[in-house]
Amino acid sequence: LDTNTAFSPQDIPPIILKNCRLPLAPSLCIIFNVSIRCKTVPLEWKKARVVPVFKKGDKSAVSNY
Fold this sequence. Notes:
Elements: H1 14-19, H2 21-38
């Protein structure tokens, strides 16, 4: 996890996610297991923010993203 990047879509700084991963893991495990057991996925988990990243070349060419 690059801690020098921008905040996540939920406005959580990467440094917080990195430093809190061990304390948060058990709670997240419970949440994921309940979701699997109940055969349901929260609507928020089904959303994605897709951001095209420019590689090189002509910025108007879709293939350069």
